[in-house]
Amino acid sequence: MSVLKQLPIQTKAILNTSILNGIRGLAALYVLVGHARWLLWEGYNGGYILHPKTYSWSTKILVYAFAIFGKGHIAVILFFVLSGFVIHYSTIKQDKIKFDIPDYLKRRFLRIYPPLIFCMLLTLILDFTGKYVFGYSIYFQRTPVPLINSNIISNLNWMTAVGNLLMVQNVYTPVWGTNGPLWSLMYEWWFYMLYPLIYYVYKKNKYLCYTIVWLLFILASNGLFDNKLASSVFNYLLCWSLGALLADVLLEKISLYWFIVPFVICVIEFSINGPYSKSIYQPAIVDTLIGFVFTALLFALLKFKTLFSLHSIFDRFNLLGDYSYTLYVIHLPILVMINGIVLSLTGNRMPQNFYIMFISIAFVLVTAYSIHFLTEIPFRRKIVAKVIK
């Protein structure tokens, strides 16, 4: 008897709850804390390690506890997997309803662009004020932390603005201002734009659909696309499709064993392009392997009754998930401005304690929650009303 046949079928009940929303909220919080730690504390190598005796035992505990927030990039991979899962699951659950492409595109636009436009205006105001009005060191790459100086660069010209609105940032233009997290939005948008075509092929033959996705990943991973945008998007398309494949597995449309094929493909590509390869495609391959880990964890969480006790934990972060997108796209410019203010008051010295970091995290959370009533709630109501109608 198949192992899958022995597992409890609980996906419908679970996916009507706030579990995935809570996971999304936790991922956004992880990114926020990681950036706050980076921008508002002196750091481990450039600070703590030079004078550990000046730290109290309780602060030393925080030093090592907050070290787990140093990998914010992997939270974005979780966003990709969740995105693929939610989009595909919600679509195939309505198999008998015609896939309305104009309505789908309208809903994706209303979901993505209002927070994006707001965050671009906010970034413009904060960056312009911090750089040209107050002349804060972080906007001129003059902080005492080289890593900050090499990564926080404000680009506010009109070409950059157009590039971000057209979702080609980090490919043809830089991200807007100091808003580094916008790099991932480019991928999300083009995944959404590709999905109607993916779903069309899926309806014809689901196995052919996934085979094409995997083939595109292979071609992109080996640099066989001349177009930079296509190369970038297809490099991460397999990672996004893991969520879609998970939806098919949970709805018993495809066997769990089909995960073996993309995993083998990814391992082979990793052996060719890494770990010691200097290939520009290697990071995407590593990220996709991380995506498999997240997919496995989501499968276990959604499938096994023995893990249902964890659901209450994620439920508690449902509210955070409601405004996680706004939080994600506005938090970094705010933290950059706070860094500028702090360094101007301390003689360009990074804080040794964590008080400013804690206060800043709380401030950003409250700010994002307030803003999401403008950037998300009104448009979410329109989407829900349209679906009900």
Helix content: 55-70%
Mean pLDDT, nearest integer? 89
Number of individual domains: 1
Unreliable residue stretches: 1-14, 384-389
Order of helices and strands: HHHHHHHHHHHHHHHHHH
Please summarize the sheet with the most strands.
none
Main structural class? mainly alpha
Query: How many DSSP H or I helices?
Result: 18
Write down the Rg.
22 Å
Kindly describe this structure:
- The chain has one domain.
- It has helices at residues 3-6, 11-15, 19-39, 57-65, 72-92, 101-133, 146-151, 158-165, 182-204, 206-221, 228-250, 260-273, 282-303, 311-315, 318-322, 324-345, 355-375, 377-388.
- The protein is mainly α.
Topology (elements, then pairings):
Blueprint: H1 3-6, H2 11-15, H3 19-39, H4 57-65, H5 72-92, H6 101-133, H7 146-151, H8 158-165, H9 182-204, H10 206-221, H11 228-250, H12 260-273, H13 282-303, H14 311-315, H15 318-322, H16 324-345, H17 355-375, H18 377-388
Write out key terms for the chains shown.
mainly alpha, 389 residues, single chain, disordered C terminus, disordered N terminus, globular
Short structural description:
The chain is mainly alpha-helical and 389 residues long. The protein has 18 helices and no strands.
